[in-house]
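Per reviewer request, we include the raw input and output of the structure prediction for the construct analysed in the revised manuscript.
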Amino acid sequence: MARINVMDFDAVPDATSLSTQAIQRAIDSATDGDTVLIPAGRFLSGALFLKSNMTLELADNAVLLGSQQLEDYPQIDSRVAGIDMVWPSALLNINHCRNVTLCGNGTIDGQGTVWWHKFWGDDENSGMLAEYSQRGLRWVVDYDCQRPRNLVVYHSENVTLAGFTSRDSGFWNVHICYSTQVILQGLRVLNQTGPSTDGIDIDSSQQVRVEGCTVSCNDDNICVKSGRGAEAQQLGRTARDIIIRDCTLLKGSGITLGSETSGGIENVIIEHNRFSGTGVGFRIKSARNRGGWISNIIVRHLTLEDVCYPFMLQLNWFPQYSYSAQSADAEQPPHWRKLASGVEGLAGLTRVENITISHITSSLSQPALFSRAFFIEGAAEQPIDQLRFSDIRLQAQEFGKIAGVSNLIFERVSVDAPAATLTENDAYHR
């Protein structure tokens, strides 16, 4: 089992020389059981593709910098926010592989600022987002505005991701899609700004464990998904048997199930996690054209401090994004047609049932900080069923809202919420 240094293949640690080909040659040279080492230094690269039965190690003080040129990320088949489509490859790609480890204390830095500006401009209120919104196309801009991810595990099995830092991704940081037996251990995700810079997304994958990770980002910290729309419902790739444990969530929108639910989400355990200054604690989001289900979810032993919305369950989330303003048209790009082809009628309502939430404390370091204890909006036609809260202590300003729920059970729930619930706080923009 050899240890292969990328510098032996002429990779240059100067942060300016493009080392894609050199690093890829080192990876391609590995045989079963070999480790490819990225040593200390700053290596600029476009997309890299790992292969089965190998380890890629990011040494202490090693930084893999993402190229800021889109042509350095070849277009490949992928899934983007629930839609199967052609999209730029990630900086690091584990595609159709088995028995792969990516480890070490180094950093994957997507240098995402250029991609963020492409989406929302320098002022976060222009760019493609403003242009598409003015044309009534808010629902499609996230898919048309191509931005590389830092790491994608796609159609792979027995993958371990351990120890490294992912920062400043152009789009999602770590995306696990159509994969099984994946362990994420001790990762650090640091994206302080940027649109759709989710921390960790587990997408139509099974037997995934996320443990001991620290995530600070500008969207969902950790998210479980299963595809969006009629195609994903027909495909039926369920996200199941997932554990999210002993993680620290900082800036971001918490631990989320959805909004892509069309293939179903089930058998998820979320336990012993800590939240500090997070926008949301535990979150479910879907829309009336997703279909699918969310069931058999256990949420327990969470500690929340200065969290705005400890519990946010919304089944008609973000209409401007969730619903196309046009019907499917043969002249549209294929991904537009997929977005326009939602799950119709009552079948489009996501079935949410058997959610058990227990042993949660949520506190405020200063009483004046905003917090709404409950923000739960199910569908009247198909309410959230069997939602149980037990051993809960919440300190908040507002009690909040609970609607669209049947078989709601409170046991040993204490809420301190002295202020009135204000309609102006019904909006949350992530």
